[in-house]
Every structure is written in structure tokens, then in C-alpha cells.
Design brief:
- Helices cover 24% and strands 21% of the residues.
- It has 773 residues and is of the alpha+beta class.
- The strands form ten sheets. The chain has a ten-stranded antiparallel beta sheet with strand order 3-6-7-8-9-17-13-12-11-15. A six-stranded mixed beta sheet has the order 18-31-32-36-33-34.
- A hairpin with a 3-residue loop joins strand 8 and strand 9.
- The radius of gyration is 26 Å and the shape is globular.
Length: 773
């Protein structure tokens, strides 16, 4: 299986009636801009370049391609820049993309990049004065060139200001992420040519992560070069005057005798369909040569996205982290349809979206179903509607049915499960209108047709159905598979029931209880189980499994501790299975207090440890909120506040673990607001501990959710009481349906816990139906 292995600022827009103290606080607050370098160090795997919310183009600097640290192409401490490419993945644990690198040069033409240690041996450049903001990036290269980047949805804009004299631009179509396990050819069917009007077009097919994906471009220049030199495979120079080159690893050099005479503007359109699509995208979105106008328009596009949440209070760093998290949470999924609506479907055919629709790529669904998609349903319901319509279309088109990790028309099958059903079920539960029945045949086939094709993510479905679990001696990652297949059954049952498929809904609902078959109630742990029904022994929850082969694991990026709390949809069933509230509470305590030791073969994804809880990875990111189901939400409050303050920093190494297309950032946004969607399909939020004194959240056109926690400080993590629209609120949770109406949620914070709040059974969150009576 492919393994990853590895706002806003305080604002002065307060209501006039808020009172003098609140007005003074708002006036004294400074607006926090996002820090786009958060996550570009450590293992965050983000990039700092220019893009729009969910845009097709991510125009950003690349510093390396050969290390896990550079999955996004950029690593903050590398010290030199290769150039600027047009597509990037944000926060993933596998690298791809980096299509069409542009590298401005002076002096001798270098066709190879050189090394980090000795950048002068290639076209790499050391740099200084790096600046990044939403929609714009700027850097001063050591060769004297100032590079600036901005974007529209489907086009990348470069402005290069050279010193006086000659210079050149290298177009490197051979640039891509490399990995030690890769086998050639990594690129096929590459073409670059120059048309009579001076437009340079090209394409390539890439066999990196999304095997066989295709990308097409059309590039125009504000100043035509004096000459163009093409290079084919092995950097073989093509005859003078050549206007086209084909092969696998292609390059072109655009020579300017007077490069410093005026800035050179490059504008480049992309398409996943064909060159004609790239040209049309360019013509439609790049109707002028005014770089600064394009930059202003990009800034304006970002403003409502990162102003969907405004906060007051907290520290300056916390406000910056929140704004940045909102930014990162709106980078993906990425647009994949051209201006005419065409896109490459999951069936390999070209389709067109209905008028007003869009197709998307980069769905990191194993991660993002948990908090990213729920966040969008709250702050961007129109975008969610667009994404849901697309998920339905692509689910119906894919031979593998519900999506798991599609990238540019290719299902990578990365991670486990078919979690594309979860955003669909969640959206349906939250009354987002869509044709859910159109996705059902594909969902049903994945659920019940065991002759349907599988990728690694859905192996062992037949055994899961027949035995009630995936046996550890038959398939790798068997424990996590069983649990996650059960959750997808839960989501699929919701869809089936909504469209009137009652028999299938009941079958799926019953099968969603299969998580029980890999939780050994006698010891209270998720435990590998073999086909004959026996458990793996001797059992050690620290280990990754029994491993009959060196690469074989019984859990997905987790161990027995973390997998034990993977259950999101039947928490009361889990509590009962483990012996009741007291034992469950004690087991959660043990999770957060166990020694933070891991086996030597643990993947780097298991990071951000508090005891054996791993915040740097997704399987147990909801675990702190599970205390509320056992009637001790004050323990949730304490731990969530700790995680918000310890796991996120205003620093390049400021995200614990990969950001995973915004999932880690979305967790912070929710938790900083004071609630979290433990089970997105339940359409309810469990209270935690708000980080700020006040937040305003746009929850739809003309609707505003206000969250107040007056006097909230670092030493007041506990919730003493809650009111909703001025009335006392005894529950430790609130429904999505309530919040999206708008209103005021007010927390009274305290330095001491209130054990009575949320203790009563009737006040606990729903799970697999209402809370137990």
C-alpha cells in the first residue's frame, strides 16, 4: 500500500452596543496577517507561494525534490531556490506535481540544478528578502534577479526584474519530485514548442505518485526573447532555430541580450485536459499584462476567505496561527476544470461540468473528512455544495467508486477506506442539497460487490463482510481497515437511508458495528486478530503489529494505543465494550499519560505525542473530545487547550506533523473556536475550550455566529457555564443546525473545572443516535 510514511486577527469591527471595555479592546487590537511560512519547516510540508482559494495553480518556489522534507517542493532551511513551478501539494506525506519550473539566470547557462551544499554548480540560487502573503510571493535571488509571483485561478504570473545586461529564463519540464523507490520512466510524452505568435506550449505525462497523470501548459512573455534554445533528453541541444522538441526530460532556454532593460512578465495557463484548454484558460484569465492589477485581484479574492473567522483576545501569535490555519484550510481540494468546464474524469474520459459547477483534485480524504470538510460546511457552504456535486460525479465515474485520494484524474488508492462517502453523508445530514442518489450505485458496489476492482485502500472487503473483521494474517493494516471500513459503512448507511434504500441502510448500519471485532474488551485495546478468531499474543500496544514481513503493519500510521480510540460513530458502544464510563475515562487518562515511546520502525507520521496520543497524525485527533461522552468534559477542556498551545506555533516548524491538505489547520480552527465535529456525519459539535475572548464566524449569507468567552486567559481553560442566545445551555455539545442559524454562544471560563457541567447523561453528545438515557 502507498503509505505517507512518512481570522483572523483581532478586528475592530465590534458592535457599537458592545460596551466601552469591549470597544477599547477591539480598538487596541492589531489585525493579524497570516504567516505563510508556518509549516514550511519541520514536517508540515506546506509551501509559501501564490495561489487562490482552491485554485488550480500553486505558483511557488522549489528548494528540493529528493527528500521527504520537500514533499511540497519547498523546505524553509534549505538556503537556495531551484526556481518556481506551477503546481504544488500542501502538507502531504507523498510528493508529486512541481510542473514546469521557471528559473531566471544570468551568465553561463546551467541545465542542472546543482546541490544544496554547492548551489553555484547549477542553476540554484541563494536568496534573501523572502516575502509571502495570500496571492503573492517575492524573493531576491543571489544573481541579482528579483522574482515576484501572483496568480489567477488557472494562470501563474511571474515578474522578473534583472540587473542591467543579459539574462535568460530556463523552462525545465523535467523537474519533478524524486523518491528512492521510483523506477523510470517517470516522465513520458513530453512536448515543448513555440507557436508563430510566440506562445510556448507543452505537455508531459508523469508517473510519480498519481501514475500517468497529464498536464498541459501555454506560456506567454511580455517581451519576446532574442532566441530560444531547446534541449531534449540527456540535455542534448537541438539544432538552432528549432521550434519544437519531444522526448521525456525537456528544457528550453529563453535568451535576452537586454534582460535588465525592463521587467519580464511570464503568464502561464494550465490544463489537465489538453493544450487548447491551457490556451483558453490563459486567454480568458490573462487579458492584460498588468502584474500589479493581478496581484490586487488575488488579494481581494483571499480577503473574504480568511475573514470568515475574526477573533479578539489570545496572544498575537495565536491570532496569526488562526489566520494562517484558515488560509491553509482553503488551499485544497484544487480546481481541476477548465474555463469551458472540461475536466479529466476518474474514468479517463473528458467530461464537462454543468454551468456554474467545477471539478476538483487533491482530495486527501483519509485526513480531511475529519475536520477540513466539516469546517467548509460551516464557513463556506457554497464551496461545499460545489465540492459535493463534484464528489458525486467523480464517485459515479470511478471504477473504484467512492474516492480516497484522487490526484488529477488518477485514484492513487493511498491510505485505507473509501472515505469519499463521509463528506457526502455529512453534507446530506447538514441539508446541503445534491443528487446523492447518483452516487449510490458506486457506493453500493464498493460496499457489497466483492468482485469489483480494488486498490490497496479497500483490500479484504470480502473477509470483512464475512467474518466481521479483516484478519491480520491475510491483509496488512487489518485492525485499522476494520475500524475505518466500519465508519464508511456508517456514513454509507446514512446516504442509503436518505435516498430510500432501507434494506441496504440496515445492512450497512449493522456492519458498522464491526469495530467491536478488533477491540479486545478483556484488555481494552485494539488488537490484531487472525482468521481463526484468535488474537495476536503476546500483545504490546506500543508495537505496530505482529508483522510477519518487515513492511507489514496491523495499524495505519498508528499503534495499538492510538487505534483503540479510532471509533468516531459509536462512542457509547465503545464505552460499554470497554467496561463503562469509569474504565473508559481511565483508559483515556492512560492514553495521555503513557510513556511517549515508539518502536524503532514507527513512521514519522506518528508525532506530536502527549503520552501515546499522537496529534501529528489523524487516527486519534478526536480523542481529547471523547471525555465528554463519559461525562467528564472538563478533561476535554484541559487537554484541548493544551494541544492548541503546544502543538501549533508561529514558526516554520509550527505544525506538528504534515498539514495534510489543511486537516491539521482545520483542527486548530475548530478547537480555537471551542467545539469540534467528533463524528461529522452526526452533524453535532462537542465543546472544548475556546482560545480567544471573542470570535465572529460567517456561517452563510447574512448569518453570523458570535462566540464569546469574556476574560478568557491562558489560565482559564475550563468551561464553568454556557449560554446560547442568552439562555442557559446545559449540554456539552451543540448541533450544526443550531449554529448555522447564527446567534451568540457564550462561554463562562474558569481556572477551575466544573465537574457538574455536561455530567448528566441527557447532556452528553449524541453518537449512533441520541445520548444514552
Amino acid at each position: 500500500m502507498l503509505s505517507r510514511r512518512r481570522l483572523l486577527a483581532t478586528s475592530a469591527i465590534g458592535l457599537a452596543a458592545a460596551g466601552g471595555a469591549r470597544t477599547a479592546m477591539a480598538k487596541s487590537a492589531e489585525r493579524a496577517a497570516p504567516n505563510l511560512f508556518i509549516g514550511t519547516g519541520g514536517t508540515g510540508h506546506t509551501y509559501p507561494g501564490a495561489t487562490l482559494p482552491f485554485g488550480m495553480v500553486q505558483l511557488s518556489p522549489d528548494t528540493g525534490v529528493e527528500r521527504w522534507e520537500t514533499c511540497s517542493g519547498y523546505y524553509h532551511s534549505d538556503g537556495s531556490i531551484l526556481g518556481f513551478s506551477h503546481t504544488h501539494l500542501s502538507g502531504t506525506g507523498i510528493g508529486d506535481m512541481l510542473d514546469l519550473l521557471v528559473a531566471p539566470g544570468r551568465g553561463e547557462v546551467m541545465l542542472q540544478p546543482g546541490t544544496r551544499e554547492k548551489p553555484e554548480t547549477g542553476y540554484r540560487q541563494r536568496y534573501q528578502d523572502e516575502h509571502a502573503e495570500p496571492g503573492y510571493y517575492r524573493v531576491a535571488l543571489a544573481n541579482g534577479v528579483q522574482a515576484e509571483l501572483t496568480v489567477t485561478e488557472r494562470t501563474g504570473w511571474h515578474r522578473y526584474t534583472f540587473p542591467a545586461g543579459a539574462g535568460h529564463l530556463l523552462l525545465d519540464l523535467s523537474h519533478l519530485v524524486l523518491e528512492s523507490s521510483d523506477s523510470p520512466p517517470l516522465i513520458a510524452d513530453a512536448v515543448m514548442e513555440v507557436a508563430l505568435d510566440g506562445t510556448i506550449t507543452g505537455q508531459r505525462q508523469v508517473f510519480r505518485w498519481a501514475k500517468g497523470r497529464k498536464i498541459f501548459f501555454a506560456l506567454q512573455l511580455s517581451r519576446q526573447p532574442d532566441r530560444i534554445t531547446f534541449y531534449g533528453d540527456e540535455d542534448v541541444e537541438q539544432p538552432a532555430g528549432s521550434r519544437k522538441v519531444t522526448g521525456r526530460r525537456l528544457k528550453a532556454v529563453l535568451h535576452y541580450a537586454d534582460a535588465g532593460n525592463a521587467p519580464i512578465i511570464v503568464r502561464c495557463g494550465l490544463s489537465g485536459v489538453d493544450v487548447a484548454g491551457a490556451r483558453a484558460n490563459l486567454v480568458t484569465e490573462a487579458r492584460h499584462w498588468d502584474f500589479d492589477r493581478t496581484r490586487r485581484e488575488a488579494t481581494a479574492r483571499w480577503q473574504p476567505a480568511i475573514e470568515a473567522v475574526r477573533v479578539e483576545g489570545g496572544t498575537a501569535d495565536q491570532r496569526t496561527i488562526l489566520t494562517t490555519a484558515l488560509y491553509h484550510a482553503q488551499l485544497a481540494p484544487t480546481l481541476f476544470s477548465d474555463v469551458d468546464g472540461r475536466y479529466l474524469g476518474m474514468d479517463g474520459q473528458i467530461h464537462a461540468v454543468p454551468k456554474g459547477g467545477a471539478a476538483y483534485s487533491s482530495y486527501s480524504l483519509w485526513d480531511t473528512y475529519r475536520a477540513l470538510h466539516p469546517l467548509l460546511t460551516l464557513i463556506a457552504p457554497a464551496r461545499t455544495k460545489s465540492l459535493i456535486d463534484d464528489l458525486i460525479r467523480q464517485t459515479a465515474q470511478s471504477s473504484y467508486g467512492p474516492l480516497v485520494w484522487p490526484l488529477q484524474g488518477k485514484e492513487t488508492g493511498t491510505m485505507i477506506g473509501w472515505h469519499g462517502v463521509v463528506p457526502l453523508a455529512e453534507a446530506q445530514a447538514k441539508s446541503i442539497p445534491a443528487d446523492y442518489a447518483a452516487a449510490w450505485p458506486a457506493i453500493r458496489r464498493r460496499s457489497f460487490d466483492f468482485t469489483a476492482p480494488d486498490k490497496d485502500n479497500s483490500k479484504g472487503r470480502d473477509l470483512y463482510d464475512r467474518l466481521g473483521y479483516v484478519p491480520a494474517d491475510k491483509w496488512f493494516e487489518s485492525v485499522s481497515r476494520t475500524q475505518e471500513y466500519a465508519y464508511d459503512d456508517w456514513a454509507s448507511a446514512r446516504i442509503a437511508a436518505a435516498i430510500g434504500e432501507k434494506g441496504d441502510a440496515e445492512r450497512l448500519r449493522k456492519r458498522s458495528a464491526s469495530w467491536r471485532n478488533v477491540i479486545d474488551g478483556s484488555i481494552g485495546f485494539a488488537r490484531p486478530r487472525f482468521a481463526d478468531g484468535s488474537w495476536w499474543t503476546p500483545y504490546d500496544p506500543i508495537q505496530l503489529g505482529h508483522m510477519p514481513k518487515p513492511w507489514w503493519r496491523d495499524y495505519t500510521e498508528a499503534n495499538g494505543w492510538q487505534a483503540t480510540f479510532l471509533n468516531q460513530h459509536d462512542v457509547y458502544g465503545l464505552i460499554q465494550h470497554m467496561g463503562g464510563d469509569a474504565r473508559f475515562e481511565a483508559k483515556l487518562d492512560a492514553l495521555f499519560n503513557a510513556p511517549s515511546t515508539l518502536p524503532a520502525n514507527a513512521p514519522p507520521d506518528i508525532s506530536g505525542l502527549v503520552g501515546q496520543y499522537a496529534h501529528g497524525n489523524e487516527p486519534d485527533q478526536h480523542a481529547a473530545y471523547l471525555y465528554a461522552y463519559a461525562g467528564v468534559p472538563w478533561k476535554t477542556q484541559a487537554m484541548v487547550r493544551r494541544l492548541c498551545t503546544e502543538m501549533y506555533r508561529n514558526d516554520p516548524d509550527g505544525i506538528i506533523g504534515n498539514d495534510d491538505c489543511g486537516q491539521m489547520s482545520a483542527w486548530f480552527v475548530f478547537s480555537a473556536l471551542g467545539f469540534y465535529p467528533v463524528d461529522p456525519v452526526e452533524a453535532a459539535y462537542v465543546f472544548g475550550s475556546p482560545l480567544f475572548e471573542r470570535a465572529e464566524v460567517t456561517v452563510g449569507p447574512g448569518k453570523r455566529l458570535v462566540i464569546e468567552a469574556p476574560g478568557n486567559r491562558a489560565d482559564t481553560p475550563y468551561v464553568a457555564a454556557v449560554t446560547w442566545n442568552g439562555k442557559p445551555w446545559r449540554k456539552s455539545w451543540i448541533s450544526h443546525a443550531d449554529l448555522v442559524k447564527g446567534g451568540t454562544l457564550r462561554f463562562t471560563m474558569s481556572a477551575k473545572p466544573n465537574p457538574a457541567f455536561g455530567r448528566a447523561l441527557a447532556d452528553r453528545p449524541p453518537s449512533n443516535g441520541p445520548a444514552p438515557a
